[in-house]
Design brief:
The chain has 13 helices and 13 strands. By secondary structure, it is α+β, with helices and mostly antiparallel strands. The protein is globular and about 55 Å long.
């Protein structure tokens, strides 16, 4: 460690080493400062010695990496060879790596996993479109930018190192944990980066890698062993999410998703099926309001439409619908063009809060008589007036009565 610390203060090209930021299997990373502009950069010094006949190859690889311009890729600003030690100058990401943010053994929420996966997948897809394979996808190579965005770094570092005199497998034991079977056999391809990202997603979800052991043991397990089921570690994880991860971890690269972006999209769609049951909410009672009265003085009662539920109406209480399936165009295809999976993804049934339109009964009338009230029309009652008028009949009876009284008196 003392030999590494002694590099502080040294100048490589136009940059002076100011602070050791970290060390890994392939390189040491220093905080550097441009001697004229006083801007901060990250200086990555590889743990390898490049022979004279390898310098041109390193220059070519560095030029290829420097042409990668993407919002989720760390930009390479410069490169060089000091003595026989190659180095890269990159943008400085001040918030560290995802390994530092989430130490090993820390399970992450599904929403966080989806966010990280989408950002890394977009960076990898861009590189694959440029015909460049990363070969060393792991949390230590995922940095956090100034706005907490994920930045993928170390593109091509593994290839540069393997093409040089660096041959120690002991120092890359951490990398073998994420290496695809075909890459272990020296046949890397874009699907190899998808496999590595699948291992990382497995670790982010469960807090542990699927394969443990020595370098040799892990290499063998990548080739022949199936990962432990995620539902044994996370019973609440949607089965669709687990199935997507297992597709990305297929031993055969042809049986994985068509590309790494399709993997991220399928994972996001599967994660949306966390809620397995939707229950129709009960009718919320209306607030108490003074009853309205009609012109006849009878109260007017407004009741909501009654929706009968039962066999007669064709409604069993709630209807079910199948949630959206993962689109077929992002599932891996075999040579005949059909899906390689003989059975569709098993999704939980989701109860729909809506009733089928054909089963909707006719609403009851809005105005109904009060409970227990007679439906007969009440008799008409003449309105009462404050001043009563004398009828003709009363006048005649009164006149006859007055005449009879007068006759009796005489």
């Amino acid at each position: 460690m003392a030999a590494r610390a002694s590099r502080i203060g040294q100048q490589l090209g136009h940059y002076q080493l100011a602070q050791l930021l970290g060390t890994g299997g392939f390189a040491e990373v220093y905080l550097g400062e441009h001697v004229h502009l006083h801007t901060q950069v990250a200086m990555k010094l590889l743990h390898t010695q490049i022979a004279d006949d390898d310098r041109e190859n390193f220059k070519h690889e560095a030029q290829t990496i420097a042409r990668l311009l993407h919002p989720h890729i760390v930009r390479v600003l410069d490169f060089g060879v000091e003595g026989n030690t190659p180095y890269l100058v990159m943008d400085y990401a001040p918030n560290g790596t995802l390994r530092h943010r989430h130490p090993r053994g820390t399970p992450l929420p599904l929403a966080t996993v989806i966010s990280y996966t989408k950002q890394v997948a977009e960076a990898l897809q861009y590189a694959h479109d440029q015909r460049l394979i990363h070969r060393d996808v792991k949390p230590e190579n995922m940095l956090l930018g100034r706005n907490q965005e994920v930045l993928l770094s170390d593109f091509g570092i593994a290839l540069v190192t393997q093409s040089s005199q660096y041959q120690s497998t002991q120092n890359i034991a951490g990398t073998i944990a994420y290496m695809a079977p075909e890459q272990i056999q020296a046949h890397p391809r874009p699907a190899s980066d998808q496999y590595s990202l699948g291992i990382i997603v497995y670790e982010w979800l469960s807090g542990q890698r699927p394969f443990q052991g020595s370098y040799t043991e892990i290499a063998v397990k990548h080739s022949v062993a199936h990962p432990p089921p995620l539902h044994d570690l996370l019973p609440a994880l949607p089965s669709a999410v687990e199935q997507v991860v297992m597709i990305a971890l297929n031993k055969d690269p042809h049986q994985r998703f068509a590309n790494v972006r399709a993997f991220a999209q399928a994972l996001e769609q599967a994660s949306q099926q966390l809620s397995t049951t939707f229950i129709r909410p009960p009718v919320t009672p209306q607030p108490s309001i003074a009853p309205m009265t009609s012109l006849s003085g009878r109260p007017v009662i407004s009741t909501p439409p009654v929706l009968p539920i039962g066999p007669a109406s064709g409604i069993s209480g709630m209807s079910t619908m199948t949630p959206p399936q993962i689109p077929a165009n992002i599932l891996p295809q075999n040579s005949s063009g059909s899906d390689v999976h003989s059975t569709p993804l098993q999704h939980p049934q989701v109860a729909s809060p809506y009733f089928p339109p054909t089963a909707m009964p006719t609403p009851a009338p809005s105005y109904l008589p009060p409970p227990n009230a007679s439906t007969a029309v009440p008799p008409y009652v003449r309105p009462q007036h404050s001043q009563r008028s004398i009828s003709r009949r009363t006048f005649v009876i009164g006149t006859v009565g007055l005449a009879a009284a007068s006759s009796a008196a005489t």
